[in-house]
Every structure is written in structure tokens, then in C-alpha cells.
Amino acid sequence: MTSRPLLPVHDAVVAGGVVAPARRDLVIEAVGLRKTYRGRGRKAKPVAAVRGVDFAVRAGEIFGFLGPNGAGKSTTLHMLATLIRPDGGSAVIGGADLVRSPARVREVIGLVAQRSGTYDDATGRQELAVQAQMHGMGKAQARGVADATVASFGLAEFADRRIKTYSGGQRRRLDFAIGVIHRPSVMFLDEPTAGLDPPSRAEMWQEVRRLRDNGMTIFLTTHYLDEADALCDRISIIDKGLIVAEGTPSQLKRDIAGDVVTVHLSGPGSAGGADESLLAATIAVLTGLDFVHGVEGVDTAVRLYVDSAATAIPLTISALVRAGIEPVSIEFRRPSLDDVFLAKTGRTLRD
Amino acid sequence: MKLLRDTWLIFRYEAVVMARNPGLIALTLAQPITYLVLFAPFLKIAMAGRGVATYGDAYAIYVPGLFVSMGLFGGLFAGYGLLNAVRQGVVDRCRVTPVSRTGLLLGRALMHVALLEFQATMITIAALPFGLRVGLGELLVAYALLSLVILLSISISYGIALVVRNENSLGILINTVGQPVSLLAGVLIPLSLAPLWVQNVALWNPFAWATEGLRALLTGHFATSAVWQGWLVMVVACALAVWWSIRQFNREVS
Where is the ABC transporter domain (chain A) (predicted)? Predict the structure, then answer.
């Protein structure tokens, strides 16, 4: 990809005086972060949103938190971005202690939240200038930086219109530009492409990579498998407030040894689907085979985890036929992150 | 210094956004002007035996009441704006920057004060043709006292909004709290006409002290005790309410 310069050079507003990190290349180090929400109302039970997560993000990385809705991704991100005080645990971000000196953390981070964070009646250029001023720039300097950002993020076409007239993709581009206007060393992106159409998503991915190429470290949350796979250098899979797996996408997939064979018991779109007993019988037959490492029933199909699909498929077919079961179709593929999630939690992420 | 700068920055930011809706600002003037034109004339007749001889006298008594009622209700509505900003994510976006969080709330509150002071000015101008006469000095001191009234009710509204976090509850609270407080402040009819027990209850209502102070100023009694008492009560009440709302805000907002 081509890498445009992120922002023109302007005086850094980030103050110095940060504590020395334990390891120089670690930009975020979180240990045992916890958050429990007290329920609202008398009968509400407390909800343990994040139950103690540890992770480390290296400089220049795109690090993703992958998990279903309600897994604790956003809560973790909000804690790191100084918006929610953790109940326990600690974190060091860009050398500053999250709990003891959140003000210093704020000097080195930027946030693009799920909600855009701009007024519908303001214009993009106004919001950019205000954001620059909130980061300590003077009026004239802020205006200059806003203009340069408009150019660098390709916002010129709509920067002087009211934000309420923007498309979803235009809003997101503005949100990104606002979030990085002070050139933070760490960017937090909360579900950066949620609700965007495919072309806008691709554009945002390019934008995220461009930020990284300009030296930023990115921490993002997502519930999209393809986003975690294609965009992130490393990911943590989070479920019910705990990290269940961590690594590069390819590492995680490699840990699910071999291939995934899917046996379909009824064609896609056929009415009614396979009945429960057929599914159960199929699972029972396939579980007994010695080359099968794992079996999961998903809708009207059964997923097998095997070392090699090439040798497993003939053996699978003959075993099924011997038991009087006729599969509709069989396919195989390399494992996806969904298989990783399934293997770790027993559920699929698409649910 | 940083607090002042940040407060001013947020003040201007909010003002620019607000100014993009001039129609809305004009609309909020409709109700006070209606009262000014249709209610105040009643007072001339109702209070004829109590030293009110002309329309000018009636307006000098009613305009301060209108100031307080406008400041009270206008201020109480400020919580809606705050909740809206929270929901749109504007508050979180600002809170991630190094901008002072106290300045974030104060700038927003003071912009609202300025908006309502603008309304008060419009009301004053509208009352002039009806015969209101007031010295510039008295008027400026009255506006300053009114600022505290407005800031007090804004802070109460912010505090409540941050506790309940929902527009419906806020609306119900505004009405149940606002109505008795405004009546007990004598915004429509001076408390001197009220039965003694009402007057005794009103002693506990800071807005009543403010109304008395404002009436003294607009009727040209600058040097009466009502003026300094109104100031004293307002300064104390305002300080407490501002402190409370800032404390609520500086807790977690998200």
C-alpha cells in the first residue's frame, strides 16, 4: 500500500516526564484488570464485565481484542483510555501508570469510540480545530493543524458541511482524524468498522495500517473474524471477561492442528434442516474415529478437526456410509479464528 | 490558568454549536415574552393597594420574578443537553484529552448561563415599552445575581442528570422540583402576599432570597438588606451545587 504522511509536522504538545517502562518495546502492559458494574436498581445483580485480564502490546503493533458482544472488550478499552476506573489490576501505557497518573496517559493516547463524539450541528473542520485546542494548541496553530488534517485524511469535500449530512464512512473518517490530531503514540479503536459497508471497511483498514506505518501502536476491539485476521498482528480472544487465547492469528489457527472438515447433513436452504437424531448419530459415529481430534455440531452440519483433510475425507465417508448416514456434501478448509473460538469456548462467534 | 483556558475553550465550542440553531434560541423566548405581555398587567390591578400605581411599578415587581423563573427552569433543562452530549460520545471524546474535566463541565454550564442572560436582556428590553424603568447600575448587579440563580439550577440539573442518566426521569424531577420551588420563590406574586406558613417555608428556598434581592434592585432599593442577603444565599448555594455537580461529573461518565 502507499503510505501518505500522516500529518504535517507541528510542534508536539505531548509533555515529557514519563516513568521508565519495564520493557522498552512494550507500549501497553496490563495486569489483572478488573471491572464489575454495580447493577442499577435494587434488584439488579452486579455484572463482572472484565474478570482479570493480562496482556502486553508491543510498539508498532496492531493488537486486537476479539470477542462476542458483551465479552468485556469495550470495558477493557475504556479502562485503558482512562474513561472507566478499574476495580483492580494495573496498567502502564506509554510509560505512564493508568491508575496513578491518568492525566499523563491522556497525553499519549487517542481514542476513536464507537459513538462518533461530534455534534451533528458542527462542521468537521470546527471539530478538528477544537480537538487540537483541547490538546493544548493555540487558536491559530489549531486552525492550521485542522486544515492540514482535512487534506491528509481526504476530508476536503465535506469538511465544511454540518456533520449530520455525512455518510457513515465520512463520519468514521472524521472520527479517525479527530482521534489522531495530536499524533498520539497509542491509538484505541473501539469497533472501528462496526456498521460500515464493505468499501468503507476496506478504507478504514487502510487507514489503520497507515496509522501504524506512521509509528503508532494500535489497540482495537472487534467482533469481526475477518477484521481480526486481516488487520491485527496479534490478538487476544476474550469471552465473558476473560482472555481465552492469545497470539498471532496464524499461530492461533495453527494451534488448531490440521484442517477443518465440514460434513453437511442437509443442503443449504433446505426446509426444516436435519433432524436432531441424525445430527446426534453422526456426531456419535465420527467421535469414535481415531484420526478425528474434535467434533462440533453446528446447525445442520458437523465440523471435524483432523490432521489432514486429504486422508480423512475418504475414511469419514466410508464410516458414515457404514452407519447408514448419507452426507449431502463434504468440504474442508484451513481453520479460521471462529474455529479457535469454538475450540476454546464451545460456542461459535457468529451466534 | 489551565482551568480558565479550558473553561473558555469549551464555552466557545458549545456557543458555536448552539449559535448554529438561532431558531431554537428565538423559540425559547416565546414563553417569557408571553408571560410578560399577558400576566404582568394582572399584577397592576391585583397589587393596586400595595403601592403599585403604574404599569411601570407592576413590571418592576414582575420582571425579577420572570428572571428567576426563566433562570430556574431554563437552568434545570441544561441536564438534557449534558445527557445528549454523553449519549453522542462528545463527553467521552473530550475526557480522553488532557482538557480539564472541571473546565469541561464549567464551560458548558457558563455557556448556558450566557444564553439565559441573553434571554434576560431580551425580556428587559421587551419590558421597557410597558414602563419598566431601572438604573444601569442596578440592572447590571441584578444580572450578576441572576447569573448565580442560573448557575445554581444548571448545577442541580447536571447533578440530577448524572445520577439518573435518563431524560424521562430528569423531566419528571424537573417538574416536581421546579414547580414548588418557583412558586415558593414568589416568582408570580410576591411572597409578602403569601400566608405566614408559606413565607416560613420559603425561608429555606434559596431562590426566594434571590427573587427578593432582584426585586429590591429593580425597584431601585439598592441599599436594602434584601440585596446583600440574596447575594449571600446565592453564593453559598451556588458553590455547593457547583461542587456537587463537578464531583458527580468527575466520577465515571460513560
Answer: 28-265
Contact yes or no for B96 and A107 at CB 8 A: no
Q: What is the tens place of the pLDDT at every residue in A8-65?
A: 433 333 334 344 444 568 999 999 999 998 876 667 788 889 999 999 999 999 999 9
Alpha-carbon gap, residue B222 to B207, rounded angstroms: 19
Q: Which of B93, B100, B102 to mutate to test the interface with A (most CBs of A within 10 A)?
A: B93
In whole angstroms, what is the distance from residue B46 CA to residue B49 CA?
Answer: 8
Q: Do A85 and B95 touch (CB under 8 A)?
A: no
- Band (A247; pLDDT cuts 50, 70, 90): very high
Q: For residues B5 and A349, what is the distance between their CA atoms, to the nearest angstrom?
A: 47
Residue of A nearest to B90 (CA): A117
How far is it, in rounded angstroms, from Cα B213 to Cα A10?
53
Please give the residue of chain A at the shortest CA–CA distance from B253. Answer: A83
Q: Rounded to whole angstroms, how far apart are CA atoms A311 and A314?
A: 6
Strand bridging mode A259-264 / A301-306: antiparallel
In terms of pLDDT, which residue wins out, B6 or A290? B6
Whether A253 contacts chain B with CB within 8 A: no
- H or E element that contains A218: strand A217-222
Task: Report phi then psi at A263, rounded to 5.
Answer: -105, 115
β-strands A259-264, A47-58: how paired?
unpaired
| Mean per-residue pLDDT over chain B, rounded | 92
Q: What angle do CA A76, A247, A303 make, to 5 degrees?
A: 100
pLDDT of residue B49: 78
Map out the domains of chain A with their CATH numbers: 26-251 (3.40.50.300), 257-334 (3.30.70.980)
B96 with A126: Cβ contact below 8 A: no
